[in-house]
Amino acid sequence: MLNRQGRPTEAGESSEALAGTFTGNRALIIEEPLIFEIGRPEVSGVDLPEAPKVGHRLGALERRRPVGLPGLAEPEAMRHYVRLSQKNFGIDSGMFPLGSCTMKHNPRLNEKMARLPGFADLHPLQPRATVQGALKLMDMLAQALLELTGMEAVALSPKAGAHGELCGMMAIKAALAARGEGHRSTVLVPNSAHGTNPATAALIGFHVASVPARPDGTLDPRDVADHLNADVAAIMLTNPNTCGLFERDVVRIAEAVHEAGALFYADGANFNAIVGKVRPGDLGVDAMHINLHKTFSTPHGGGGPGAGPVVLSKALAPFAPVPFLRRDGERLALVEHTAEAGAAQPFGRMASFHGQMGMFVRALAYILSHGGDGLRQASEDAVLSANYLKAALADVMSVSFPNRPAMHEVLFDDEWLKDSGVTTLDVAKALIDEGFHPMTVYFPLVVRGAMLIEPTESESKASLDLFIATLRDIALSIRAGETARFAGAPYFAPRRRLDETRAARSPVLRWVKPAAE
């Protein structure tokens, strides 16, 4: 029997606990219908005069039937969306341990700065003379990123990580073509890479060759050397890698790649682990995107906003895309067309406008408020937090690479679940019942049943201890054979476990009013 939360009834549970409610609500947990179920398309929540009959210029594109938006009074509309927002989980709600995503705290100072009218009210087509403050801020951010990475130039226009990857790889392709080596068509990608890496290389016409990792989760420079030849254009390497490990042979790998005439693209998604500790340019990197929405605290998730500036080495700097900043005496100019680029050889453009001024403001506010020592401490604290989790859970969960220190994230596999009848997905769903967002599951693919946890530097020791205690309780429950706790989890969320495979393969994207009974 299920109780009113939908969870199996415990022995001795009172009959009252089995009772439902008339409304379907459970105290402040509101059963929220769709907005189409609340409102009606034939009514409006506001009185408006009849619209005058006017001609239109839509031609064959004129709407032939009503738009079908439900009519609600203002309080109804407001309450609906507020209640939906209360069902969201974010970094402001609690710990968000998604591995590979760096869901860190977004200081409210950043938000205050981004809302200053001089930044918030900008328009991309304003005269350049009226946006000198914005250009100065972009220049300060660019200089900070170059200082932290040891690189020569930076393209600020890419919108996010994958867009930045595309920018970096297009710069590499342009550089090779400029030196008469456009025939190089192969890109080496470790099998532990982010999935966007091979996708980006393939998108612009490269052939992708996978390089396997060693048993300890890192890349062997000898394996890289075995794959190098005159056809190789570049290697795409994440460091720290997706297993949460620092590639200790990265300099030797870079030297081998350069000796073969190829270039080195670094995925900067995990830069949060090494800021202030090591400069990628000093490791031999030629191009690297930086997720401002990971490393420098600007918020992300739900499709945006994002920003993925790309830093470039001296070899690639001339090929940075337009638009880019250039100093013209005391003023900053935005070079928006390749014809204005002078001696530079931009490969083209990634976007019509920069478009993410709010992200630039937030990132620079974060950098300036922390300073170099604060940024370095953030990296150190992120690594410390991950290793604390690793040490505290290693006796009850199986660490994928126990003999290597973790960087900012720690990787577990499902060996500890063997023969228990409980899966990685079950553990993730059980965490929802405990009030935690699950960790990243089944990624990276190099280990079975992966659980990738990134606590970031934002969490206090008390917060980490509660998370550790929760996972230990889950582990002990699994050892005790309490499979009912996991079989249908989550039990306490607004909705129970979904058939995710069916939802992905047969999505229902339009609400249809049910037929009247």
Compact overview of the structure:
This protein is an alpha/beta fold and 517 residues long. The protein has 16 helices and twelve strands. Helices cover 33% and strands 9% of the residues.
How many separate structural domains?
A: 2
CATH superfamily assignment of the largest domain?
Answer: Type I PLP-dependent aspartate aminotransferase-like (Major domain)
Q: How much strand?
A: 5-15%
CATH architectural group of the largest domain: 3-Layer(aba) Sandwich
* Order of helical and strand elements: HHHHHHEHEHEHEHEEHEEEHEHEEHHH
CATH class of the largest domain: Alpha Beta
Summarize the amount of helix as a percent range: 25-40%
> How many extended strands?
12
Mean pLDDT comes to 91
Class of secondary structure makeup: alpha/beta
Strands ordered across the widest β-sheet: 1-7-6-5-4-2-3
Uncertain segments of ≥5 residues (pLDDT<50)? 1-6, 8-18
Enter the CATH topology name of the largest domain.
Answer: Aspartate Aminotransferase, domain 2
Keywords: Oxidoreductase, Pyridoxal phosphate
Organism: Blastochloris viridis
EC number: 1.4.4.2
GO molecular function, one term: pyridoxal phosphate binding
